[in-house]
């Protein structure tokens, strides 16, 4: 433990070597976090689309409007100080706040906002769909997003109103980057993408000092942040994949926060000076079957699978306190959520479903899973349950980045993963779980439906778009309830749980904020007494 302690602090904080006794506490002004960060594929806001990269982007970049640390449920002013909507013309006009600057020292200009949004659309990387759903294309985006009289004017095409557009613009994909700095680092027309995957050009509460994939993130406070300088000088996020090691580091005082402890470890903490905080999350966890695999296209497989998940067994043991049973795509606690859980673990019923459909058993299916808790434990539970009905799951563990990349390539058979809304509107998840208008291999979409090659019925696709256009919120919620029931009843995606996040931290840490969406982790208000 002493060796690990010295390695952690010397690598992460770059302090001179100190006697072991002096390392009982983390340095003043520095928050040290133990976290599994190997899910990161990219940190450029135009490409970042993983949970941990979203957290990084949130703390380093700003958007025109945002859900911020003070209240993660309220859409507040960000780089824009005010805005006005013209429903008839389908435009929003934003006035930028005075005095906001990038980490480079350059002022935040309307031109930077336009450049940033145009850049996302023209790069057309994984999260670009969040903006292109506004009717933006590489050909028209420079007309839809423009500067007029020193203000940013944003237009859209589609049957939806300003409230939906504002939520899209609060997503991390709409982060504003420093045009002048990024252009200096463009290589072969890449819009600075390679450089931004190792550096930052933001205006956020922290700047990125160091990023080493699957090893370390170090953020340094921005003293000129427009909402006030962060309370701490820096944040060090050390990659620690093993939950047991995170617990040891926390209990020995080597880290201030452990982000990935299991329920057993949480309940087993006996050291003084440590507390547990629980944060409800919007992430839903699911099992899915790739429809490019012929054996998995029979709807009887999908139906039987819903009765082969030991929902209560998992949530009462190794998932206790971390997840709750939730079998619909829109999370509990949000308007329009379906809170009916009709499925229970019943392997005999599942076997009968398969027999009635004439499914030839046994079959073997590979299951890709992130090689960390609680995913490996979940996979083993699923493996045991499915075996009861003659379906043999062969578990294929990998890093978060490896598993997610394979999923995006549609090269898996079965996948155990999670999904969090990109913005606070039910269309975010309806599009992910109930819409796939083009299932072609060359028509990539960042949705669970496309990634599982599920050609969603035309009627369901039409209902998703009709719900988006519905102006009456009560009627709109009713449509989303119907869509959730359809996906729940007949799709190759088995939604099982909704996450509740438990974070262990030293008693002297205050002000840590972890909102319901994946990007809503804020360090700006954190203090250490």
Give the overall silhouette. globular
Terminal Cα span: 25 Å
The Rg value, from CA coordinates, equals 23 Å
Q: Care to count the β-strands?
A: 21
Beta content: 15-25%
* Overall number of domains: 2
The profile of the biggest β sheet is: 11 strands, mixed
Tally of DSSP helical segments: 19
Mean pLDDT over the residues: 93
Write out the CATH superfamily name of the largest domain: Periplasmic binding protein-like II
CATH class membership of the largest domain: Alpha Beta
Unreliable spans: 1-23
Helix fraction by DSSP (H/I, runs of at least 4):
25-40%
Notes on the protein architecture:
By secondary structure, the protein is α+β, with helices and mostly antiparallel strands. It has 19 helices and 21 strands. Strands 1, 8, 9, 10, 11, 12, 13, 14, 15, 16 and 17 form an 11-stranded mixed sheet that branches. A 4-stranded antiparallel sheet has the order 4-5-7-6. It has a two-stranded antiparallel sheet with strand order 2-3. The longest helix has 17 residues, at 473-489.
Tell me briefly what this model is.
This protein has 529 residues and is of the alpha+beta class.
Topology:
Blueprint: H1 2-13, E1 30-35, H2 51-60, E2 65-68, E3 71-77, E4 80-86, E5 91-96, H3 110-123, H4 129-132, H5 141-144, E6 145-148, E7 151-155, H6 162-169, H7 179-184, H8 193-196, E8 206-212, E9 216-221, E10 234-239, H9 243-251, E11 257-258, H10 263-268, E12 274-289, H11 299-305, H12 311-315, E13 323-325, H13 347-356, E14 363-370, H14 375-387, E15 391-398, H15 400-408, E16 414-419, H16 427-434, H17 448-451, H18 458-469, H19 473-489, E17 493-506, E18 509-510, E19 513-514, E20 521-522, E21 527-528
Parallel strand pairs: 1-10, 1-11, 14-15, 14-16
Antiparallel strand pairs: 2-3, 4-5, 5-7, 6-7, 8-9, 9-10, 11-17, 12-16, 12-17, 13-17, 18-21, 19-20
Helix pairs in contact: 11-13, 16-18, 16-19, 18-19
